[in-house]
Write a structure and sequence with these properties.
By secondary structure, the protein is α/β, with parallel strands linked by helices. It contains 11 helices and 10 strands. The strands form 2 sheets. The chain has a 5-stranded mixed sheet with strand order 3-2-1-4-5, with helices on both faces. The protein has a 5-stranded mixed sheet with strand order 8-7-6-9-10, with helices on both faces. The chain starts with 8 loop residues before the first strand and ends in a 17-residue tail after the last helix. Bound molecules: 5'-O-[(R)-(carboxyoxy)(hydroxy)phosphoryl]adenosine. 5'-O-[(R)-(carboxyoxy)(hydroxy)phosphoryl]adenosine is lined by residues 17, 143-145, 170, 173-174, 185-188, 191, 271-273, 275-276, 302-303.
Length: 334
């Protein structure tokens, strides 16, 4: 069967953290709608996501957001071919809202249910931005909960080559921002203030023996926190610029090792931290070394359902249909 000729419309549903998002994507590549209802203003006053509050807000938002996604795509429930919710990783209560809603839709509309991995979704954001992109490639996945270098062997086949042994890179950005008083979510705020500072403070980079591609970000995070506590007058712009520059070096050193190890010369970025302007510039620098670099559109870097619908499409054509017993898996890996 030639799936491309079929115009398969996937309803993607994302509720793993603090965004309720529903999208309609055709054949994995064309966005017909992508509605994102963010809870950032609600969690901002707590300095981070409060899981209970996130779940309650997903429940309130999910029907409204779905209705809007269908309206924006100018279709009805009957026109949907596949229903693809994120089922992990993420906050269990938050995930359950999207999974339960998707199961109810799948049952009542009699449409296939395709439970989709959130990390696979972040990788798939690249397929929407670049219709010509096809596996294999290396993907540097950088988000609030994950940091890993993935060999994307095929649309649904992955090998994790290296990952963080402690904090995710986004977690480190958020913690640094909170400690220096920039608020939540910290990544975009560090990005902005760092552009006004000088990266002139030496910060530690964890080193592992052997040829591992693993990362560690807790040491540098703690160093920034300690520096700020010992010297509250420290220039925040310089501190943020130094932090951002050092974590970028940590990333790039492992990425270059991964390129050498695999001899794969196509790199894609994924996850919220791939919106960082300094990191994007550093990756663009790889093009001088004949490495082809792909980066999702900024609005597709952070959590959204279009990327889930894209990954869901590839799971569907691979025949990975879920049972109605599908459950949320908070620590799901690739
Ligand atoms: O991918 P995402 O939306 O959610 C997860 O799946 O985790 O990533 C959120 C993370 C947060 O830690 C946020 O601070 C970070 O992405 N982030 C950034 C930037 N924009 C978002 N970090 C650095 N620079 C940015 N411009």
């Amino acid at each position: 069967m030639d799936f491309n000729e079929k115009h398969i419309k996937v309803l993607g549903i994302e509720s793993s953290c603090d965004e309720t998002s529903v999208a309609v994507v055709e054949n994995g590549r064309i966005i017909l709608s992508n509605v994102i209802d963010t809870q950032i203003p609600i969690h901002e006053k707590y300095g981070g996501v409060v899981p209970e509050i996130a779940s309650r807000n997903h429940i309130e938002a999910i029907s409204r957001v779905t209705k809007k996604a269908l309206e924006d795509a100018n279709i009805t429930f009957q026109d949907i071919d596949v229903i693809a919710p994120t089922y992990g990783p993420g906050l269990v209560g938050a995930l359950l809202v999207g999974v339960s809603y998707a199961k109810a839709l799948s049952y009542t509309l009699n449409k296939p249910l395709i439970g989709t991995n959130h990390i696979q979704g972040h990788i798939a954001a690249n397929y929407i931005t670049y219709p010509e992109l096809q596996p294999p490639f290396l993907c540097v996945m950088m988000s609030g909960g994950n940091t890993q270098i993935v060999h994307v062997k095929d649309y649904t086949q992955f090998e994790v080559l290296g990952k963080t042994r402690d904090d995710a890179i986004g977690e480190a950005f958020d913690k640094v921002a909170r400690v220096v008083g920039l608020g939540y979510p910290g990544g975009p705020k560090v990005d902005k203030i760092a552009s006004e500072g000088k990266a002139d403070i030496v910060l530690p980079k964890a080193h592992f023996d052997g040829d591992t591609l693993d990362f560690s970000f807790s040491g540098i995070k703690t160093a920034v926190v300690n520096l700020h506590h010992k010297n509250p007058q420290i220039n925040v712009a310089n501190l943020c610029a130094s932090f951002q520059s050092t974590v970028t070096q940590i990333l790039m050193e492992n990425v270059e090792k991964a390129i050498q190890k695999t001899n794969i010369k196509t790199i894609a970025l994924a996850g919220g931290v791939s919106a960082n302007s300094y990191i994007r510039k550093a990756f663009m620098g790889l093009e001088e070394k004949q490495i082809k670099v792909y980066m999702p559109d900024l609005k597709l870097c952070t959590d959204n359902a279009a990327m889930i619908a894209s990954a869901g499409y590839y799971n569907y054509i691979a025949g990975n249909e879920s049972e109605l017993s599908l459950n949320a898996i908070p620590n799901l890996s690739l």
